[in-house]
Amino acid sequence: MPIRIRRRRRFPALPRHLKLDASLPGEKPQGDAGEEGLLCECLACPPRPWDFSLLSDDDEDDTDEESARAAAYGSRDSDEPLISRFVHDPPDEIVYTLAGPSFLASYLGVVHGEFVIPDWDYFCWDDHAAADHQDDATDEEEREQGKSGTGEDISDEEYIGFLDVLPRFSPCVNDLLFLNIDQRIKLYERHTLYRIKACKLLQGHSIDSLDDAKLQRMYPSERLMEKGYFRCYEENGTFGWFFHPDHCKLAALDDYQRLVLLNDGGYEYMQWDNYRCNYLTHDIDREYVKYCETVSEELRWLEDYVALDVTCRHEWRKLSNKAALQAMKIATRFTKISVGLARLAFQEYKSRLFFYFRNLEELDGVYFEIWKRVIKQQKSFREAVKEVYELNKFPLRQNLMKYALSGNWSLWETKFHTCTAGIHGQIDESKARWLITRTLEAMFKRPKGYEEYARKKLKIAELIGLIPKAST
Which residues contact 328 (CB under 8 A, 6 or more apart)? Predict the structure, then answer.
């Protein structure tokens, strides 16, 4: 069973959850031990994920109070949340973007076992989430009015024309040109500044106060090498990202291309190995995210026919092929989307549709109707399920409710309360429905695609100053 998390202060009503195993810090390959040993010293006693005392030896900006608090927390085993133990309370956006699973476990006060936390992108993409919420409401109205069409008819000749316009492949990278030792030391020093910025942000410091020139004066080269370039914070689960050691050897890459996200538990992303090795620039990633959003918006009609994959495969293939041609046409509006990226986006879009249909279709509606009765009308869970069952409004979930009413409802009730934790009766019903939907998506652990990978990577890179922020 998930552990009920004791929260303090600024946490919003639990809108989304991500189940993590506190014992798994995430997969991350190790560098060449012999070669790295020439470049940086290993720390005899690596710090814990929440212990930033390694940074504050000569840091005049850190107050005595903050150092004392960090030392007090780091000196003992505790299951109390790390929230509020720093003098400066870090914003949720910072924590859920930059932090890794080990830091999050300590931050929320869960040291052992499985736990449930809000997913990162709820905090990082409020504007995107709000737009998504509005789109969902509009889409719900369209669904009530009937089918939204069968897409656009595109001929084979038009399709071939699209292929001629689009680049066949993304730009290639020369993986035979390597940095020498001096170049790599400069690279490590630069990467260390990004790690220091991330640590400072997780301590609650303002990003405007993290000036590169000031940090370079505070942390000279000798100190960086002495501290192992602070790579311990990548290795102990403090961060949910790292600079891949193999990528750091290639001269043709920039720092954004060397940045890699953790694949938590080995299954967070569908094709993690391919994602980390595609070496796309931040400009291409930004355009890819916009392209995926456009595809999701203009191919919404395909959602109404996913069930045909089970009932009438021939008809589903025809509609799926029509949608693939439309997706390729959409790609011609973007200058940096290759044929390969367009196909990847469409395949992952279809994968997402299948996942939602098989695991989530109508389930959010069932949970929402139960939530209205349990939270707003103060009825028992069983009474609420019986009423929703008698509505006969959710044919795909009728058997589930019938099974629960036969006396097997305790496990489902636990899942329901986990899903709706913090969604109180004063919340607007349309917002509550949206929160329940997004929470269910996270709880079912859908493997994420490259759109989610690129979106989070861009946000991390912006926060630590690796790339400029996107223009609004």
Answer: 159, 162, 163, 166, 339, 342, 346
Sorted by sequence, the CB contacts under 8 Å of residue 240 that are 6+ apart come out as 26, 98, 99, 100, 101, 120, 261, 262, 264, 460
In a domain, 429, yes or no: yes
Collect all residues with Cβ–Cβ distance below 8 Å to 153 and sequence separation of at least 6: 322
Inside any domain, residue 388: yes
Residue 437's domain comprises 363-443
Query: What does DSSP say about strands 241-243 and 259-261: parallel, antiparallel, or unpaired?
Result: antiparallel
Q: Residues 6 or more apart from 228 whose CB is under 8 A from it?
A: 40, 41, 42, 43
**Which residue type is seen at 218?**
M
Residue positions counted in the chain: 472
CA 461 – CA 290 distance, rounded (Å): 17
Q: Answer yes or no: is 197 within a domain.
A: no
* Number of domains within the chain: 1
For the segment 372-413, what is each residue's pLDDT rounded down to a tens digit? 999 989 999 999 999 999 999 998 889 889 988 888 778 888
| Mean pLDDT along residues 135-140 | 50
Closest of 302, 404, 430 to residue 357, by C-alpha: 302
Cα angle 320, 325, 329; round to 5: 140
Paired residues of 184 in beta bridges: none
Task: List CB contacts of 45: < 8 A, sequence separation 6 or more.
Answer: none
Of 125, 94, 91, 251, the closest CA to residue 183 belongs to 251
Angstrom distance (rounded) from CA 419 to CA 121: 17
The β-bridge relationship of strands 114-117 and 18-21 is: antiparallel
**Dist CA 16 CA 464 (whole Å):** 25
Q: Are 97 and 463 in contact (CB under 8 A)?
A: yes
Q: 192 and 230 in contact (C-beta within 8 Å)?
A: yes
Residue that the structure tokens 């007090």 belong to:
72
Least reliable range by pLDDT among 292-301, 389-398, 420-429:
420-429
CA distance 110 to 82: 10
Residues 465 and 460: their CA atoms lie apart, in Å, by 9
Are 403 and 431 in contact by the 8 Å Cβ rule? The answer is no
| Residue with more model confidence, 153 or 2 | 153
2 within a domain of the structure (yes/no) = no
